[in-house]
Amino acid sequence: MTTVRSRARKLALPAAVIGGLALLTGCADHAPQNTWAPAGENARDIDNLQRTPFAIAGVVLVIVIAVVGYCIFKFRDKGQAMPKQSHGKPALEIALTIVPALILVGIGIPTIGTVMKLAKTSDTQCVINVTGQQWWWEYDYPVQSGCMPGGIKEPIVTSGEMIIPAGQHVLLRISSRDVIHSFWIPRLNGKRDAVPGRVQTLRMQADQPGIYDGQCTEFCGLSHAYMRMEAVSLDSAGFATWVGNQLAAYTAPAAGSAAATGETTFISQCSRCHQVNGVVDSSGNPIIARPDLNVYSGAAPNLSHLMSRTTFAGASFDLLTPDCRKNLRDASAADFSALYLKGVTPECLDTVQLKQWLRNAPAKKPMYADPTKLGPTDNKTRGMPNLHLTEDQISQIVAYLTVRH
Amino acid sequence: MFTTGSKLFLGGSVLAFAGTLIYSGIHGGPLGTIGLVTATIVFAFLTGINFWVRDSNVSSMDTAGIESSPAAHAAPGRSMWPMIGGLGLALIPVGLVVGRAITWLAVIVMIIATVEWMVQGWSEGASSDPVYNAGVRKRILHPLELPILGAVGLGLIIFSFSRIMLRLPKAGGPVVFGGIGAAVLLFGALFATKRNIARSLVVTLCTVGAVGIVGAGVASAVAGPRHVTKHEIAEKTLTVDNCTADHTEADDHSSRAIAGKSNLAATIVLENGKLHADVIGVNGAQQTITIPRSNDSYIRFQNKDSGKVRLVANLGYDLINPGASNEVKVPDVVCTQAVTKGGAQFLIVNPPRPSSATKFGAPYSFTIPGLDSAGSIAIEVP
To answer: Which of A175, A146, A177 is nearest to B263 (CA)?
Structure first.
């Protein structure tokens, strides 16, 4: 008995510390992927659904622990005689079957209703195609009459940050180019697998302008942890401005500028995989990237408007300085859209990570890009390889990319 | 003369020696041969030891007593195993000439015969009671014999069924096997109602049925399967040469091809002479669809009109040796098989270039060859 008690005393402190730490995690003030803080009607439906069962389960847990604890204490071994044994109590057994069944029915009815509501597509106001690949997300906006007054007349493609109009019922059409991924913005809705060859739908709606973080939730290879995403909600005017900016014609850098030199370097080093819409060769023919010939997934991020987004490489790395990032995160709903649409301004641009990326991308984000180990993928890389650029070339490309707003 | 233990080891010696001969004859590897020779020597040594010490049985040292006891005079039972073993042995040289399968069959037959013969021989010396000895043999061998014989018998029946089905005409199969099923049901019902039916009758009927099926199976296997016509069908999608208004043999069997119905990029419908697209999440009929670049997009084509038409995806041109003097433009075209009224077909579209690449050529589109009045569905690729 003494041994048991002393062992229990020894375990009590570590158990209390671990339990306390677990409880303290609930006090985090920066929890951008908190499922208990819904920011749109779909996530709110899920939240409403989960709270009741959690409450019921909590009550059941307390009752069970109390009864078990009472029995352990009350009927502990005190050297007494073995009590009379009995078997079966039909009334109690029937009650213990019916009560959980009723609880399950009570949970099941609103669950089915919520599932059907979350699968609804008839009230869609805006459609976005979402395509996952190792290890970033591509978002393309189909030609459609929705999303904004007048609709979207030409397709738009972007990556890392998915721009959605606040308050609208957005429908994501999710697929994958290589392996199975899973798309999840916890504050806006549940998750949906991205499966090659299949288009799966997911409703998305954000009440207010702001940034909503997410993370690929299906293990998809080496850099799965770096496959992040951000849903950026803009007010309706801001969204229209963003669309107009994405469809703006390409403006070549001024002749003789650093960006113009960077354009040449970009074309020679990067345009095999990365598309910049509107860029032409010396004959005036459009330069069309062929990532399908070089990358296993067949795609690489479109960089036409890189500086209109604030992250790169699968939303893993920041283009903003920490102060500017904080200002953007802390902006009120009323101010957010205008601040975001400023893009990466010269005073907010943080080139450190971008240069590190260009210097040796696989060193910054693990990828299958070693040219000596590409046999299984037909000599195609998974992710961006080390291009062995010189420091001059890196500076030139950065100069070019920083004018791609 | 030989004690029980020495008989067992003698059998082991013979088996190992036979294995040595067979292995060295078929395979000839030094490692295996050495192993089997070693086993032969060890078994022979153990045979000698057991024979010398009379199985360590003091009473058995009294050979006179053993020879005069009733057990010593019990007549050994008749055994078919030496004959079967001899058959297996004879088959080995045949197999070496004819083929490896017969050799392996002969080896298996020899092993079975040797084991059965050894155990039978051993069990007959277990006591002076032949009934008890037979029980000993059953206890040892039935756990092996019954599952193996059951599996072999079942395999034989299944194989025979398959040969018969392959031999019968296409329409005859259901009739014949329906009849057999009905007969089994009938006899089963009769046996169930007539409880006192003679067991021999049941055994006879079952034997006749099994022999009949196996016999018919062997005959069918010898005669060979019926002629099966192979139709030409499209593989995944058809390409430029076949994407015309003309029909091929493959189009006559389009119903055999896959027709996915869910989670598609779009369904394109020909209805009332016009094409339109239904896209998940996009309300209403569409004349333009946007599909991702360099990704398989699964399109379903549904023909609600009369006539037999195919859907063609025109995805611009693929450049072979771009920029070089021998640059060649190859149309990037895929299409479905021709679809009759009410039918549907599947098309996988994977445009490697964005729509911006079409600004100097024809835009991407879905069309129906030979039916210009149906219009087209524009394809946008970001």
So the answer is: A175
Q: Which of residues 7-26 of B touch A (CB under 8 A)?
A: none
Give the Cα separation of B337 and B244 in Å (integer). Answer: 10
Q: How far apart are CA B81 and CA B29, in angstroms?
A: 29
CB B183 within 8 A of CB B212: no
The three-state secondary structure class of B333 is strand
Q: Which of the residues in chain A have pLDDT under 50?
A: none
Chain A residues lying within 8 Å of B264, measured CB to CB: 199
Is A143's CB within 8 Å of B290's CB?
yes
pLDDT computed for residue B229 by the predictor = 66
Name the residue with tokens 């302008």. A209
Q: Express each pLDDT in B64-82 by its tens digit.
A: 655 665 555 566 777 888 8
Place of tokens 């007539």: B194
| pLDDT tens track for B104-163 | 999 999 999 999 999 988 888 788 788 888 888 899 889 989 999 999 999 999 999 899
Q: Which of B281, B354, B380 sits opposite A173 (nearest CB)?
A: B281
Q: In this complex, is the C-beta atom of B363 within 8 Å of any C-beta atom belonging to chain A? A: no
Smallest Cβ–Cβ distance between B296 and the set A141, A142, A196 belongs to A196
pLDDT tens-digit readout, B87-108: 999 888 888 888 888 899 999 9
Tokens for B189?
């019902």
Smallest CA–CA distance from B261 into chain A, residue:
A198
| Distance (Å) of CA A194 to CA A175, A179, A325, B196 | 4, 8, 29, 66
B378: nearest CA in chain A?
A: A143
Candidates B237, B295, B365: best to mutate against A (most CBs of A within 10 A) is: B295
Which DSSP string corresponds to A327-395? HHHH--HHHHHHHHHT-S-TTTB-HHHHHHHHH-HHHHS--B--GGG-GGGTT-BBSPPP----HHHHH
